[in-house]
Queue: 3 jobs
Job 1
Amino acid sequence: MSEADLDTVLAIEACAYAFPWRRSHFADSLAASHWTALRRDADGQLVGYAVALPAADEMHLLNLTVARPHEGRGHARALLDALQAAAVARGAATLWLEVRPSNERARRLYAARGFEQVGLRRDYYPAPHGRREDAIVMRLRLAAAASPAPPGDAADRAAAADPAGDRRGLD
Ligand SMILES: CC(C)(COP(=O)(O)OP(=O)(O)OC[C@H]1O[C@@H](n2cnc3c(N)ncnc32)[C@H](O)[C@@H]1OP(=O)(O)O)[C@@H](O)C(=O)NCCC(=O)NCCS
């Protein structure tokens, strides 16, 4: 993902969430070299993306989104494949994410990938009418035999810092 992708990314984001990420969330992630991945269809159209925060020996999935008209075609699975490969390549032991209890579609996707529920963050997400919604914390343990990635891997634009200090989980 680059600045040039953000108009398209924001259009997809706005349709996908009641409380979408703002441009600054994506811009801050790019500035901090968070891991990002784009998904395109056969015509080269951008149809999905993922953003993850790398840390010492883990990665935290912050955003995973597929454009509404392109759902149900395996794009999210492919993005999770890319994330998992990047995490294994850099020697990460664990993938983390948060998901709304109401987001059954995403929960089914993560469960099918082997993520397990390990906790609950009370009132984590904004919800309609000024309410809050809990976040389910999910974890995927990666193979212990993972080997670190070579430095400068272009596909794995990782950095440890969270630019905004606003560690906002998946919605
Ligand atoms: C959740 C989301 C990323 C799934 O993307 P997707 O590209 O449609 O998912 P895939 O096609 O890769 O499907 C993967 C799995 O999702 C689930 N899924 C896909 N389509 C589904 C549908 N119509 N109904 C229920 N579950 C569905 C299934 O478990 C599926 O696995 P299967 O093909 O073995 O049945 C997408 O719906 C999305 O962007 N939603 C809005 C944003 C969001 O909620 N992001 C996740 C935040 S935690």
Job 2
Amino acid sequence: MTALSCPELRLIDGFYDAAESAQIYQLLHGQDWPENRYIVAGRQFILPRLQTWHADPGIRYSYSNNLLETRSWTPLLLKIRVQIEAFLQVSFNSVLVNLYRNGEDYVGWHCDNEAELGEQPLIASLTFGATRPLQFRHKQTGQRGQVLLPSGSLLVMQPNFQHHWLHSIPPEPNLMTGRINLTFRNVVPVSEKIDA
Ligand SMILES: [Mn+2]
């Protein structure tokens, strides 16, 4: 199964060209990365990747608040946000930055369906650095597929993708180079949730 047969995924290859992508990777890689050991309910666990979370003032996200401090936008992240918003005609108020340092880093099967993302979460996912496959698995049928995410590509996860599919980035033990992934999200502010 290819991404084209998963109608809830749209891949734009070369959203950034190779030179821009390499520069963005280097700049993001040089940011201050926090420790990836977390204490949850008194137990320590190690996240198999490094993460930072950046959001507009007042935006809270339970996933990140459990693990991560909220950072403000850097000029680079803001510039990319503006470009993605203009291209997709969608607004985002936050971005989760993931660094997969090499093929040992991964993310297990999950879907991004936290309540704060609202009923129709559209997520824009940018890749810089190593090409990794995003695997997906249908929640009901078990149907599986994958899409390769090259450096500079933009993957749009349409809202129903989170409803119907789980996704993962599996480990690749022989891969020595890193991948940085930006996932732009729109988190519904707490006050709007109360009013809704
Ligand atoms: Mn995800």
Job 3
Amino acid sequence: MPHLHALLLEQAQLEKKAAAAANRFLFVLPQNANVQRSLSQLAREELVHFERTLRVIDQQQIAFVSMPPSRYASQLKVACESHLPQRLVDELLVSALIEARSCERMRCLARALPAALASVAEFYLDLVEAEARHHLVYVEAAMNQPGATNVAERFRMLALHEANTLATLPFTPHLHGGHGNAD
Ligand SMILES: [Fe+2]
Ligand SMILES: [Fe+2]
């Protein structure tokens, strides 16, 4: 299947970044035990996903190299407020959107893989099961932030920005590739 190698290498990188993002929130958010527990569990799950992706990369006999970062995540953060505590709320909501989009795209990938790659499709579907929970962890964390106001309205605005970002990023064989209306 074309681009499978690049997609799996990118997947490894994205899982590692997802773990790092959750880990960072553990330190920068106000110390709420429930939120900390959920984010800690999420960070562990992302690292398990990273290790599982490495195993699939090995099984497919792909040379492990790092992939250049996509502009998707950095472009989403452009719309976050610059002042605290709203900035942290927005960053949590952006993480929720990234998780939800990743989940949707992994499900599409699993369905698109040919029968000869059934084990890789199963791998993606296993990840989807966990990823489907992750966006809710971030939405809940955002709603639990002291001083958080207009969370629903911010989420709507950031979701619109996310959709516009995908509409303008170039169409590339990446999990977060755009629809190709620019570049
Ligand atoms: Fe993951
Ligand atoms: Fe995730």
